[in-house]
Amino acid sequence: MKYILTLLLTIIPTLAWGQCVGTISSISKDDKRGTIIVETSYALNGINVQSNGRVRYSETNPQTDLTWTLLELKQMVGFDIKDHCENLIARMPTNESFIQTTVLERQGELVQTLIDNVQNQVGQKISATEKVISYKGKTITVRADGTTSISNIIP
Amino acid sequence: MALRLFLILFLSLFSTQAFAVNWTQNSTAVATYTFEESSGDLLDLSNANDGTLVNTVTQGAAGQRANAYDFGGGYVDAGDIAQIDGASSLSGVVWVSHDTTSDDDYIFAKSSGITDGLLFFRDNVASLSGRTDTYTIFLASSDGEGNRRVESATNASTGGGFIHVAFTWEGLSTTGLRLYVNGVEDANSPSTASNVGAIDSGDRILSIGASSGGTNNIDGKIDEAGIFESVLDATDINDIMDNGLVQAGAGVINLIINGTFVADQFYFN
Question: By the 8 A CB rule, do B16 and A13 touch?
Answer without folding.
Answer: yes
